[in-house]
Amino acid sequence: MPANRVDPDFLSLPLDALADAALERAKNLGATYADFRLERIRTQSIAARDRELESLSNGETLGLGVRVIAEGAWGFAATVEPTTDAAADAAARAAAVARTLGALNSEPVELADEPVYTDTWVSAYELNPFEVGDDVKIAFLLGGSGGLLDSGKVDHTSARLVQVLENKFLASLAGSRITQQRVRCEGNFTARRVDKDSGAFDSMRTNAMPVGRGWEYFANGYDFDGELDALPALLEEKMASPSVEPGPRDLVIHPTNLWLTIHESIGHSTELDRVLGYEANYAGTSFATLEDLDTLQFGSGVMNVTGDRLVDHGLSTVGYDDEGVKAQRWDIIRDGVLTGYQLNRQMARKQGFGRSNGCAFADDPGHVPLQRMPNVSLQPSPKAITLDDLIGGVEDGIYVVGDRSWSIDMQRYNFQFTGQTFYRIKGGRIAGQYKDVAYQSNTTTFWNAMEAVGGPETYVLGGAINCGKGQPGQIAAVTHGCPVALFRGVNVLNTATEGASA
Known about the structure:
With 502 residues, the protein is α+β, with helices and mostly antiparallel strands. It has two domains: 8-240, PmbA/TldD fold (2-Layer Sandwich); 247-494, no CATH class. 22% of the residues lie in helices and 37% in strands. It is built from eleven helices and 22 strands. The two termini are 45 Å apart.
């Protein structure tokens, strides 16, 4: 199957007939709005431990969901049976739910306007991972693990691959008919070393990020060989390095670490449903309230953060969201000031923001779409500022690479983060490593301490494939691009002596 074509097995399903059956029933039962989603999600997960295959699992979800507005309220129902009778029945059940809730609803649901679309969209990838043999994938994992063990500096390894192929067909009562396909993958290796004399141990993981790409990412899209070759010596050096002295330090933070700080402190704090309290029971609220819009100095003047569903290989990149809103790009923070939120159609209309910016997503045909994070990215400087330039401006500090553990409060304000590797900076140069490092701050203090960002050549897409939200819980894949960045006077903790997570 060519990479730029929708899987013919999905297209062979009676997409239009199923949609017609659901939408017609919804209309006849008084729905003023209705949408229909048919989804197929294929997954594969492979894990290895040391020199052996540990597990290989394949999964497939196929089902449809119907969402309606009737009597001014939402109703939703789903089924795993892809027949016209089942689709019509799902619409009837959704309408019944809406009528029941409508009797209790004092504020009728209204949606922001959006044009009608007929389109097909496929994400940017070259090689469908589900057309690559399992033997090739297993050889990739065992080859990388074997190389680590052969170094003589690694005692145990673990490795994994995750691949997802997602197909969606969306139809609305207004007339939209949208077919989409996207691919995403993740793969990493972890090396573990044990000091036989002291019993001390530590681990280090490759820094390859999950991406919206196919198997080409593992074949030639990332330097796994180079990173695996360097990992044993880096881990050995880390274990022999001095424990960090706590206190304020200048930090140069690599995108493989900074993406996670962006996700937790910016991505989640600018979700409008969290700001409005809809997620308070499960995932918390946000310090970035509506009163802060266009006034809050979220960060320094070099801080420019965008939301988008457009960037090639982004994990949140789609052609359209699950409400049929066309993908866009918009400012969340401009020159350090909070200027935007993440919206779905209902919140956009209710709060007077005009058009939705396309942030409705469901992770499964049996789940209702929630407001979910787009690609939220810190933009680089237009100048050619390099990593060496930023390190050269630090007299005594730390260069942080890779993500590890994190902790942030329910308002996305107070936090601490660790990483994979912590290089000491002395006199503008790298001078070995530290261990036992975490950095701690609050969101606005931290981002206002950002003095400089690197140029476009330092920009990297990071992200996660398992961001959780909602009740019942849903997961979403999201990308956060960013350059290397310099922060002044950030509080550093010693995780071995201060009880921080390491």
